[in-house]
Amino acid sequence: MNMPKFNMNWLYIIAICTLIFLYFSQGGTESSVKTTTSYENFKKMVLKGYASDIVVNNNEKTLLMYVKTEHIRDVFKQGVRQTGKNPCVEVEFGSVDKLETFIDQARSQKKFLGDFSYENKDSGDLMNIIINVLPFIFLVGIWIFFMRRMGGGGAGGPGGVFNVGKSRAKMYDKGDEIKVTFKDVAGQAGAKQEVQEIVDFLKNPKKYTDLGGKIPKGALLVGPPGTGKTLLAKAVAGEAGVPFFSMSGSDFVEMFVGVGASRVRDLFRQAKEKAPCIIFIDEIDAVGRARSKNPAMGGNDERENTLNALLTEMDGFGTNSGVIILAATNRADMLDSALLRAGRFDRQINVDLPDLNERKEVFKVHLKPLKIDNTVDVDFLARQTPGFSGADIANVCNEAALIAARHNSKAVGKQDFLDAVDRIIGGLEKKTKIMTDEEKRSIAIHEAGHATISWFTEHANPLVKVSIVPRGRALGAAWYLPEERQITTKEAMLDEICSLLGGRAAEQLFTGHISTGAMNDLERVTKSAYGMIAYAGMSEKLPNVCFYNNTEYQFQRPYSETTAKVIDDEVLKLTNSQYERAKQILTEHADGHAKLAQLLIEREVVFAEDVERIFGKRPWASRSEELLEAQQRAEAEAMAERRAKELDEQARKKAEGGTDNGGENKENKA
User: For 659, which DSSP code?
Assistant: First the structure.
């Protein structure tokens, strides 16, 4: 029934209205007209026989003399219709004893035969009530305020202090409030298939139970940030014809002891009442982190109690038939092993970064609301964004639209998308950053070194373009089109290290000094070299050994100090050998490197076709060769078209400036 919800404010309004009604209803018994006079006039009127009743108020030393009906006109100069039936005169007196003596005299003379009474009545009844009740109202208001602040709502409402142990999960019944379906989730075919099976089981359980199958108790969505784990859960909520409870792992965390476990129990109690249903816990690592093996070393008892309650509810002594738990995290390695076992989370669904075909599907989804022109090629964009997650691709599309709007374009073109990719990877161009000629030459030599080494190493990624325009914190950058490999060989990793060291080697060879510009390159080289030696077993002295530092080694390294010295020596030997190799390649192609550096100084941006004109065809063909050539042609045409528009705009402004007298001066100033 659509009945209005009860609210405490109703009681407050009813109480105030009752007080006002009582006040005015009591006041209606008093006279309609009241006037004041002196004590001497009062005595004269009493002795004349005007008084019918006299009421004394001891609290305020005043009295009310009610006038007889036949003498109303003598006192008030008005008739009964104007004054009412009980008009009175208010008089201030000094002494009660003298007043009583006077009344006795008037009675003895038979001038006053009415009632003479006392009462302790205040004139401001309502004001006195307010003054007396106001402190209590103030205290109650403060109490309600603090209860709302502590509980996140009213004292008795949802999330209030009395419901602090209640679950904060939001329930979606049959997906009415969520319009996301599996059609809106691009790519991730394997992950969608697994979650679709869960939805299908809830919709048609007899199909599976007839064969003796049991409903899976839980599925854990694991993958890097931005790959669509939460989006998959929304699609499940939109597709499922059952109630869907959604909450975050941090909703279980509270400052009060025992609240997290209480919320877990309340969540599963509600779910059992609505079974069959789905519970989705986003970022479950906030509550499901591995329990400490040594409680004395900073273990969080409250978080562990919450995790124990979750483990018991998922697969404990009781039964949770018809309740499926979906959870998402990008830190599965930190979860407790008891949480990951079969019977709790029966399935771990990997939601990985999208591959080439999946990126095409994601682009198609995010390109729907954009106005794009004929130059946009989805296949080309998908190949330009290796390693991008679904969130990154959405950001590329939005950034491209913003760039097109900034250029006053009617539609979003291919060059806008390429600029957006560059903007996201490298940062915003800072053409206004001031650099000396010597710094610019040093940066050009550094970036030309990277480009030269990558051109003459077999397994290095194909070069796209080189730029010395500052972006973000980088003073220069080289763009590559990496091939998506499932495994990486030792030769490919060595070529990558050699290419990264090409910038530092070029500085030392052709400027005679080294700079801090290679800091990021050295960081990547060191990390890659340690990975090869310590983890991948690609060392001559430590072959086929992996010292992977997993959760079993928390306070010490899984190798001795002697082995650590060997690892350090091997890393140093590997990097030095690749550094000498880079210098050798640069020495052999010093003339081409010098031409490329000079071209960078002149043009600031050099494409792969320019490098090809200097060094010739790349010795090793690549699967991305045709795509690179197509990209270079597209970018060159787009830049030429944009440059032509700028020249036309300048010519138009110059022509307009020449029509008036100040045009020549304006042009000279420009």
Answer: T
Residue 583 C-alpha from the chain's centroid: 48
pTM over 0.70: no
Q: Is the pLDDT of residue 330 over 80?
A: yes
Residue 28 has pLDDT above 90, yes or no: no
Residue 534 DSSP label: I
Which residue in 39, 55, 304, 9 sits closest to 154, CA to CA? 9
Rounded average pLDDT over 375-380: 85
| Residue 476 φ then ψ, to 5° | -160, 165
In angstroms, the Cα distances linking 128 to 23, 123, 140, 359, 501 are 12, 9, 19, 75, 88
**Encoded tokens for 45:** 């009127």
Whole-angstrom distance, CA of residue 656 vs CA of residue 595 = 41
Q: Position 402: which residue type?
A: L
Tokens (6 digits) for 216: 């899976």
C-alpha–C-alpha distance, residues 243 and 177, integer Å: 11
Average of per-residue pLDDT values in the chain:
78
With cut-offs at 50, 70 and 90, classify the pLDDT of residue 655.
confident
Residue 600 near residue 447, CB atoms below 8 Å: yes
Write out pLDDT tens, residues 94-131.
888 888 888 888 888 888 888 888 876 655 555 666 66
> Does residue 591 contact residue 458 with C-beta atoms inside 8 Å?
no
The predicted model gives 204-224 an average pLDDT of 82
Kind and range of the H or E run holding 91: strand 88-92
CB atoms within 10 A of CB 188: 27
Backbone φ and ψ for 480, nearest 5 degrees, come out as -125, 160
Residue 137, exposed/middle/buried by CB under 10 A (0-12, 13-18, 19+)? exposed
The CA R_g of the chain, rounded to the nearest whole Å, is 44
List, by residue number, the catalytic residues: 447
- Side chain identity, residue 234: K
Q: Is the pLDDT of residue 644 over 80?
A: no
Number of residues that make up the chain: 670
